[in-house]
Amino acid sequence: MRSADEVTGKQSVEVVDDVAGAAEETAPETGRPRWRRADTWVLLGFLALAVLVMIQLWIDPNGRVLDGNDDDHGIFLFMLAHAERVVFDGASLFYEDRFNVPVGVNMMANTSILALSLPLAPVTHFLGGGVTVALLTTLGLGGTAFAWYWVLSRHLGRTRLAAGIGAAWCGFAPAMVSHANGHVNFVSNYVLPFIVWQVLRLREPGRVWRGGVILGLLITIQIFINEEALLFLALTLGIFAVSYALMERAEVGRIGKRFAAGLGVAALTSGALAGYPLWFQFFGRGNYHGQPFEPSVYVTDLASLGAFARQSLAGIGAVTRRLSVSATEDNTFFGPFGLVMIIVSIVILWRSSAMRATAIAGIALLVMSLGPSLRLVGFHTGIPLPFALISHVPVIDLVSVTRFAMVPAMVAGVLLAFAVDRIADYPAQTRRRFKIGMVLALVPLIPKPLPVVEGTPMPAFITAGTWRDYVPEGKTLVTVPLPDVTTGRTGQRWATLNNLDYATPRGYFMGPADPPWDDTGSWSAPHRYTSQLLMSVGKYGYRPTLTDADRDRIRQDLAYWRAAVVVLVPDSENVAVLRETLVDVLGSPELVGGVEIWRINS
Q1: Helices and strands per DSSP (H, E), number in the chain
Q2: What Å distances lie between residue 387 and 229, 235, 393, CA to CA?
Q3: Has UniProt tagged this entry with the keyword Transmembrane (predicted)?
Q4: What is the pLDDT of residues 189-205, one digit of tens each?
């Protein structure tokens, strides 16, 4: 008869052993998982739900803008326009010189999603960047869910039902749906489940070289989708590995060497492939360090764990706004029953060292997302938290802190999937209560379609190509308001929907605040006199009194931006005062192609 210690030891490693053997249980003799009709229906179901979430944008993807975060919608139009130029015009891969003229933009230091934008450059070229945004976001939601379903059902789980529930959570949790408001990179997480799976497979004999190379390739792909998510995953797996090693020393001693060797091969592979792009990101032109805000600004509110997100079926916008930093950062919001069922799942799985380590990793990243001090119901309590100790560590200081909470959101899906499997071993009454709890947890979190607004239509001056008669090569078209973060969105949208066929100054992107004196990250180019003046006029609606010296400074700024023509965007805020200011400096405008323009004689 076995001792209690022997039984506990067996239970503690059974999940990891299941990981190694699950592929054999679900695969045919060829070793490849079979595709079944149920898989097709699951895939179609996830895609249908993703289309439902994005349906209002799909109605007119080039004419509408996501209301939750129109700024970030605009920045990804820029990323797609850059990729189109790379493929169709032979532009530089890692640097864009037709945006933020005359300085340009370091694309590796931005969320350039090159692994996605380059293959879809033909879609951007022929159908427009708005279509590509809608397509990538839809495929991101549905694809992430199906990727988790595939890994959970083929390798980490036992039943398709459990995998489907866990995958639906991973793909359509409030965190994912909120990031669909413009964050194409953060909804495109379909590589991450396969990275997890390949890391776990490194424990198997004979996987050092083959497994390491495969893992390195996957890491490289993820670098060109979203480095931030890769950092989160690396931290999560690191905490998981340390926790598991402390609980299962004998097991780790048996597999540790080949596991570490496999990671080394993966590091060499990804380093060889992505080494130069990463060097360019951190040391090339336009690099920056840190974020334009303190770590305490964008943190997770503890009360948000049991609340509903604004885009959940049971969500109440006013409550969510109190507990969230923005519509794209509802990174927790599990709902009261969802939070309870996550805790129940941890209890059910607690005897397994692997699941316990998984839960610990999720909790650790959740604590990190709370920031350097506790925020509760919108109030900063001043209670210090562990993140304060690492908030200024390089690379960590590039992260928006609340996004660490995306990890526990994904971990929750994995825990729920395994709990659904395990509950089958419990008495009927317990199973019935668990099912009721799951319904109460999941139904209120069903996502609603994301809201959109109509974008300012492009005038004939742009759509008919009339601008070509006014903007020679090497010169720029300057829209007023100037493209910038939170202002000038229309000008940036026009330029990027035209795939940067004409160059433009400034814009919304990440770059150094005031080089070479200050390389702190900023959301836009350093302000010049004219950009600051016009931004203030547009925001506050006051008519400035300009001197001849002021007019000369404006002309100098236009020369710096290599301006050939200035275009006043119709329907802009305080457009009448903006027009009066431009007339004061540049004289009377011409009405061409539905807009007022001023030619700039250089």
Answers
A1: 23, 12
A2: 18, 13, 10
A3: yes
A4: 999 999 999 999 999 99
Domain ranges of the chain: 25-59+128-445, 460-599
CB 283 within 8 A of CB 100: no
Instruction: State the pTM of this model.
Output: 0.92
Closest CA to 354 of 157, 161, 159: 157
The Cα-based distances of 213 to 104, 207, 268 in angstroms read: 35, 9, 9
Q: Which two tokens stand for residue 101?
A: 């003229």
- Using CA of residue 129, residue 135, residue 137, residue 140, what is the dihedral sign? negative
Q: Which of 68, 114, 41, 595 is nearest to 328 (CA)?
A: 68
Q: By three-state DSSP, how is residue 93 classified?
A: coil
Partners of 511 in beta bridges: 522
The predicted-structure confidence for 345-372, as pLDDT tens digits, reads as follows 999 999 999 999 999 999 999 999 999 9
Residue with tokens 């959740």: 366
C-alpha span between 498 and 125 (Å, rounded)? 9
The DSSP code for 467 is: G
Determine the Cα–Cα distance for residues 1 and 174; give it in Å rounded to an integer.
48
C-alpha 139/C-alpha 217 separation (Å) is 21
CB 406 within 8 A of CB 333: no
pLDDT at 135 over 70: yes
Q: Residue written as tokens 């825990």?
A: 415
Tokens of 16: 């990891």
The C-alpha atoms of residue 64 and residue 454 are separated, in whole angstroms, by 5
From 188, 255, 268, 266, select the one nearest 228 (Cα to Cα). 188
**Which residue bears the tokens 């006013």?**
318
Say how far apart CA 101 and CA 160 lie, in whole Å. 53
Residues in the chain: 602
**Measured between alpha carbons, how far is 505 from 525 in angstroms, rounded to an integer?**
9
Dist. CA 475–CA 590, nearest whole Å: 19
d(CA 577, CA 445): 46
Say how far apart CA 329 and CA 594 lie, in whole Å.
38
Cβ atoms of 310 and 330 closer than 8 Å: yes
Residues 239, 360 contacting (CB under 8 angstroms): yes
**20, pLDDT greater than 70:** no
Q: How far apart are CA 571 and CA 165, in angstroms?
A: 46
Identify the helix (H) or strand (E) that includes residue 66.
strand 64-66
Q: Are 269 and 213 in contact (CB under 8 A)?
A: yes
Confidence of residue 128 (pLDDT cuts 50, 70, 90): very high
With CA atoms as reference, report the closest residue to 192 among 174, 207, 176.
Answer: 176
β-bridge mates for residue 599, sequence order? 565
Tokens of 414: 């994995």
| Separation between Cα atoms, residue 441 and residue 344, nearest integer Å | 12
Q: What are the residues whose beta carbons fall under 8 Å from the beta carbon of 70, sequence distance 6 or more?
A: 182, 453, 489
d(CA 155, CA 198): 10
Longest dimension (CA), the chain: 97
Prior bond of 481 cis (ω within 30°): yes
Cα separation, 66 vs 454, in Å, equals: 9
* CA 347 to chain centroid: 31
Separation CA 547–CA 453 (nearest Å): 39
Written as six digits, the tokens of 601 are 């004689």
Which of 446, 442, 447, 448 lies closest to 338, judged by CA?
442
> Tokens 């605009």 appear where?
74
